[in-house]
Design brief:
Organism: Polaromonas naphthalenivorans (strain CJ2)
InterPro entries: Restrct_endonuc-II-like, YaeQ, YaeQ_sf
Helix content: 10-25%
CATH topology: Restriction endonuclease-like alpha-beta roll fold
CATH superfamily: Restriction endonuclease-like alpha-beta roll domain
Protein name: YaeQ family protein
Pfam families: YaeQ
CATH class: Alpha Beta
Structural class: alpha/beta
């Protein structure tokens, strides 16, 4: 019998001063049995960094990347089912990213492993045609600190200002500064 996903619920209070987006979001995350707390929290971070200010062009949703290779970690689809923004986490291969770049208006990757520089050096030259791709590196120490905030039920305050993110539970806080690795997007 297959192990089922673990359901996590998060109440996010987002204050994104860089984009002028403020709001409360209740999200449900189905955590695949093979997913770590660190990866799940990077998905939450990616949600906070990319949630649209309104739903006029659809919604940002958690997808089923660990269950279905044709889906990202998150995607923003419009009401016609066109993919506006494909968001992956981790270190996807160049073929996956080129397919995503052809399918979506924008593609973002949030890589959080200490091996990110090695991974990126190996595929960077293969992605020069993907002008709609942005790759972000989250320092491993920051993503590991973020993993410590993970719980089955979370209330998180997320403040984004000048490219820095503060994610807080009220009693604990983590500062994350994503570093852009690409010139595209």
């Amino acid at each position: 019998m297959a192990i089922k996903a673990t359901i996590h619920k998060a109440q996010l209070q987002i204050a994104d001063m860089d984009r002028g987006i403020y709001g409360d979001h209740n999200v449900i995350i189905a955590r695949h049995p093979s997913e770590t707390d660190e990866r799940m929290m990077i998905r939450l971070l990616a949600f906070a960094l990319n949630v649209p200010g309104d739903d006029k062009r659809g919604n940002l949703e958690f997808a089923k990347d660990l269950w279905d290779v044709d889906e990202p970690a998150l995607w923003h689809k419009d009401y016609t089912d066109a993919v506006l923004h494909w968001i992956d986490v981790g270190q996807p291969d160049d073929k996956r990213l080129m397919r995503a770049a052809g399918r979506a208006e924008r593609v973002s990757v949030y890589s959080f492993s200490s091996s990110t520089p090695v991974w990126w050096k190996g595929i960077e030259s293969k992605l020069t045609r993907a002008a709609n791709l942005i790759v972000w590196q989250i320092e491993a120490a920051q993503s590991q600190a973020l993993a410590k905030l993970a719980e089955r039920g979370m209330q998180l305050q997320i403040t984004i200002q000048d490219g820095t993110v503060w994610m807080s539970t009220g009693s604990e806080s983590v500062e994350i500064t994503p570093r852009r690795l690409t010139a595209g997007g």
